[in-house]
Amino acid sequence: MNKFVFLSVIAISLLMPTQAQIEMNSSGTVGIGTAPSSSYNLKVANNLLVPTIYIDNLYKKSPIAGSITFTLGSLKLMHPTYPMYKTSLGINMTPSSSYALDVNGSARCTQGYWHTSDQIYKKNIETINGKTALDMLLQVQGRTYEYKTRDELLSLYQSGELKLTVDTISVMEKDENDQDVMVEKVQIEVPDFLEGNNYGFIAQEIEGVLPELVSFDSILGTYSIQYDGFIPIMLEAIKQQQTEIEDLKQQIAGISSLKSAAIANTSSNLDTNQQPTTLFQNAPNPFSEETKIRYYLEDQVNTATLYIYDMNGKQLRSYDLHHKKEGEITINSGELEAGMYMYSLIADRQVKGTKQMVLTD
């Protein structure tokens, strides 16, 4: 037959119960410890020890014309002589000793991926510094890309730029007399990547920033990334950003409060002979060399001071005002750096007005 499974059985217990344990129906399907099913050639109720499994006719055509499906309730791979010896499983590829499972292609599950993360398994636990996490992420560059095709990868392999796993397999084929003969064929394992646009990182770029999240396969000479390792780093970076945002909100609220008080105490459209203590807009504004700030002080004012602040609310200059009625002070460009500033008139410990001025280069 075109597809068969050859089972080399080590031993069968001679202590057979009176009830039949092996049953075959009229269709030729077999059940061991259970009734045979028309859906399967062989159905086993409990454990099955198979030292050797040989599957024929998988590589007769290219691409593979058919497929064989294994339905397993559970699967446990163990070294036959040393049960605790590490065993690797490869799906559509030869497994690597660096990983317990290697898959060439996409993997899917219905209940998500669960990573063992219990505290009992861990030591040297430390909190990730939010500022450090943010600095690291700012060095990481997200990329969009497409994977190279199978033909392109084969071309790189043939030119010696890319290493691929090469294996010799034995397959059963029909000769000219329609007899089964064993034929050896060379199989080159080419990675199977998703087509179309993808989003991610370049492993060599990540290695310089977060080497703990990068793995190097010394046999194939290629890099891999542990993407879920970015999650706690991004979390702490977001928390750090939120702290900085809250600090900025408080600074803005303080500046807004100062400006509101200035608006409530300023009436720049009144005549200077009739108005109360007033602060006027500097002129010229913006300025590059010098500007003059006019003010008006009522006779009953005891103390008055003009303060200059940067846009973060830090005090830079102060000028005591002694001239009652109309007065002015001159600000030279050499006193400040180019930028935007606020200035306020405070008389008898009350804000009488706040304005903005701009110094240009």
- Distance N to C terminus: 90 Å
Q: In order across it, which strands form the biggest sheet?
A: 17-16-19-20
Reading the helices and strands in chain order gives: EEEEEEEHEHEEEHEEHEEEEEEE
Q: From the alpha-carbon coordinates, what is the Rg to the nearest angstrom?
A: 40 Å
Helix and strand content put the structural class at alpha+beta
- Average per-residue pLDDT, rounded, comes to 80
Low-confidence stretches: 1-20, 54-66, 267-272
Number of helices: 4
Number of strands: 20
Q: Can you summarize the main beta sheet?
A: 4 strands, antiparallel
Q: What overall geometry do the principal axes of the alpha carbons give?
A: elongated
Please indicate the percent range of residues in DSSP E strands (runs of 2 or more): 25-35%
Quickly count the domains.
Answer: 3
Fraction of residues in helix: 10-25%
Please name the defining characteristics of this protein.
4 helices; alpha+beta; 361 residues; Immunoglobulin-like; 4-stranded antiparallel sheet
Question: SSE layout and pairings?
Answer:
Layout lengths: L4 E3 L14 E3 L5 E3 L9 E3 L8 E3 L33 E3 L9 E3 L26 H9 L4 E3 L4 H9 L6 E10 L5 E10 L8 E3 L2 H5 L6 E4 L4 E4 L4 H35 L13 E2 L10 E8 L6 E7 L4 E6 L4 E8 L6 E9 L2 E10 L2
Helix pairs in contact: 1-4
